[in-house]
Design brief:
278 residues, alpha/beta, Rossmann fold, seven-stranded parallel beta sheet, binds nicotinamide-adenine-dinucleotide
Amino acid sequence: MGKLDGKVAIVTGAARGHSEAVAKLFAKEGAAVSICDVVPVEVLEEQVGSKIREAGGQVVCFQTDVSNEDQVTAMVEETLRQFGTVDILANVVGIAGPTKDVWDMSLSEWKQTLDVNLDSLFLCSKAVLPVMIEKRYGKIINFSSPTGKQPLSHRAPYATSKMGVIGFTRTLAADVGQYNINVNAICPGQHEERSLELARGRAEYLNKPFDEEDFRTRFMERQHNEKAVLAGRWLADEGFAEKGSGSEDAASLALFLASDDSSSMTGQDINTGGGVMW
Ligand SMILES: NC(=O)c1ccc[n+]([C@@H]2O[C@H](COP(=O)([O-])OP(=O)(O)OC[C@H]3O[C@@H](n4cnc5c(N)ncnc54)[C@H](O)[C@@H]3O)[C@@H](O)[C@H]2O)c1
């Protein structure tokens, strides 16, 4: 018996990373999952949808830009048509945005990050809430970041958006608690591909050399050596944090927040990032 048997979940940005892990775990635990990404739907089918089906799960895939209202509405309507309801929304999509200082950045670069990272939460939540309110049941899980609680140099739009995710989470939690809908945020750790992209972008912007092979071989070590985990330094120094806290930990927390094990938790923002303590 799975923890999400009989439930229907929408998971955004599922072609890779944390969201792929969330979608697979939700399906393994019995949820019918509706997954979307901006990549072509055949790619999402092949990379994730087919694997969920092979493992015995129920899935439907969409090519959806979650910052586009019409596309979000169409995805939610088709999910309702195919699965009959929606119980869980995991707003995982988040782009890194530009690595630039504010004075080097265009307004459109600033806006694109906020569109994808914040409008998507608004649009997806708005689309599923009438169903959740009517059934007096729902779980909304938003992906913020440790950067939602601290600055990140040269990345103002991303940090601002992730702080906004926490503000949205708390406010929505207050608004929909009366309908038995829980809204929580996860501040996850890293995974290798995205960390690589970010490190390369940062090196380029700062005109510093970048060695991909070295980065890949020392990925976990770097997380600690470069003080990515600030308040958790003692964990690394004392040999606790041998591994990074990536997609699996984030997915496990998402499962807890999507299940009735966390029925009285709402408005929280929880770190899974290897010892971050704020
Ligand atoms: N990986 C990290 O280091 C890290 C750390 C802290 C927080 N986070 C947060 O966790 C979440 C997941 O991060 P990740 O690293 O797994 O992401 P990722 O970059 O690996 O994957 C994001 C997915 O979202 C898709 N996507 C991008 N824009 C989209 C759009 N407009 N509509 C639909 N899909 C879109 C991409 O195609 C991609 O498949 C994000 O919100 C991110 O900000 C990640």
